[in-house]
Amino acid sequence: MLLWICLKWPEASRTESPGLILQRLALAMLRYSPRVARFRSDSIVVEVSASLSLFGGVRSLWRRVRRAAQYLAPSIQIGMAPSASGAWLLAGSPQAIHKRVVRPCRLARRLAPLPAHSLPEAWPHRQWLENIGCQNLGDLRKLPRQGLRQRSSPALLHALDTAYAQEPETFSWFVPPARFRQSLEPDFHLRQAAALLAATQPLLLALCGWLQHRQEALHDFQLILHHEKGRLACAPTTLALRFSAATWRMEDFNRVLKERLQHCILPRPAIRLELIAGPSQPRAPASDTLFPDPSQYVQEEQRLLDLLAARLGRNGIQRPRPLAHHLPEQANTWAADPAPPASQSLPSTVGERPRPFWLLSQPRPLVVRQHRPIHQGRPLRLVQGPERIETGWYSGPHQRRDYFVAEDPEGARYWLYRERETGESWFLHGLFA
Question: Which residue has the higher pLDDT, 163 or 244?
Answer without folding.
Answer: 163
